[in-house]
Amino acid sequence: SVFENPTAASLSVAHRIGDLIKEKQKNNSKAVLGLATGATPIGVYAELVRMHKEEGLSFKNVITFNLDEYYPMQPDAAQSYVSFMNDHLFDHIDIEKENVNIPDGTLKLEDIPAFCLAYEKKITEVGGLDIQILGIGRTGHIGFNEPGSAPNSGTRLVTLDDLTRRDAARDFGGKTFVPTKAITMGIGTIFKAREIILMAWNQKKASIIKKAVEGEISSEVPATYLQLSDHVEFILDKDAASLL
Ligand code: GLP
């Protein structure tokens, strides 16, 4: 769907998440959310916080799994995705700490494969992701699945693209300070979600959105894999959709 502006689009995504949480509450079950970082979902999180504060929406029955984290990364660093999620969402709602899952950027290299398998297993054990929200990087990455990622890939350590590191340079005070690696859910992990929502706004996303939606399916643009799924929705503003 194409919305007039990012705010309208963000509200619609937040309200779908809110509806899912309330529906699960009625059945006394848990809502399992796959969450993303970056500028794109900030408005969604702001609306969820507003719904918590003003409408009493509770997150006690919510379990979250974040897509990715830089590696190496200390959780209390300003640039960590842990800090991002705390600042924009978790510090402002009543979610239980033990229900929050974010890949661990402090692991020893040799412990990463076991951690990644456990991350996948935990998602499965809680019943799988009900909704996965995604942004898109200018390389066509979803999560940190850069060009070359396999469609059946699982959670793993990856090397970041140069363009991705350049885009992150502002947050780190220069590209040389951006970690070269990250731990990310795989394309296969994302695909298992019952509902996938990819969001993009602004003109600078228009050309990658055109490739993702209309381009040939290829590992060169990992977001094109989403064309293969029947439970994906692209939520765009007019500018991001302008080349479609
Ligand atoms: C990072 C994140 C992605 C995100 C992308 C786009 O690379 N790992 O999940 O989609 O940035 O970021 P933004 O929303 O700021 O454009």
Radius of gyration: 17 Å
- Which H/E pattern describes the elements? EHEHEEHEHEEHEHEHE
Bound molecules: 2-amino-2-deoxy-6-O-phosphono-alpha-D-glucopyranose
Straight-line distance between termini: 12 Å
GO molecular function: glucosamine-6-phosphate deaminase activity
Domain Glucosamine/galactosamine-6-phosphate isomerase: 6-227
Protein name: Glucosamine-6-phosphate deaminase
Organism: Pedobacter gandavensis
Topology:
Layout (H helix, E strand, L loop, with lengths): L1 E2 L2 H21 L4 E5 L6 H14 L6 E5 L1 E4 L9 H8 L11 E2 L10 H14 L5 E4 L21 E4 L2 H11 L8 E4 L2 H5 L4 E5 L5 H9 L17 E6 L7
Parallel strand pairs: 1-10, 2-3, 2-6, 3-5, 6-9, 9-10
Antiparallel strand pairs: 4-8, 7-8
This protein binds 2-amino-2-deoxy-6-O-phosphono-alpha-D-glucopyranose (GLP).
2-amino-2-deoxy-6-O-phosphono-alpha-D-glucopyranose (GLP) binds next to loops.
Protein name: Glucosamine-6-phosphate deaminase
Organism: Pedobacter gandavensis
